[in-house]
Write a structure and sequence with these properties.
195 residues, alpha/beta, seven-stranded mixed β-sheet, globular
Length: 195
Amino acid sequence: MAKYHPYFQHIALPCVSAALHLYFGYKVIGRENIPEGGCVICPNHSDVIDPPLVAAAMGNSHRIRLMAKKELFSSKFFGGLITWLGAFPVDRDRADITAIKTALQAVKDGRKLIIFPQGTRDAKEGDAKEGAAMLALKTKAPIVPVYVTEHKHFRTRARVVFGKPFLPDPKTRDYAAVSEDILRRIYELRKEIPS
């Protein structure tokens, strides 16, 4: 059974980044906003390429874990590859306790957890799931909103914008309100992209 290999991630991410630079010519804004220690990285999700694009945009100095839908792991080769790179499966149709425990442990261990608050790339701009909010509140970790350019294609000069980290009120259990706040902060980052 495949396992996460931080050293493989360290070697592979620069290659992924180079390939994405060649294809999209992407630029990163606000990378300095990524804090030290464990945190929850929350990007919008409109394209299948968003997960590797966000991971590559973070640079090669972070240990990254990424929550991904279980269907991506159905292929033994591809599932093994993304597991080595830091992804782990989540069953979106039920409360996946194993995935939740893996995510919580990753943040507690000081890793950067990438989770898409919308849950799927078919979601509308205002549609938010509560998973990212719940994980951030349970770990008391900062949340980093990230905006990724939508409608990407060859040489679109895609942009990845990292916003300033924030901490929700630790006393709240209103995951829906925190999730809506995360999405609001994500889409406000569009203003950071030069027109």
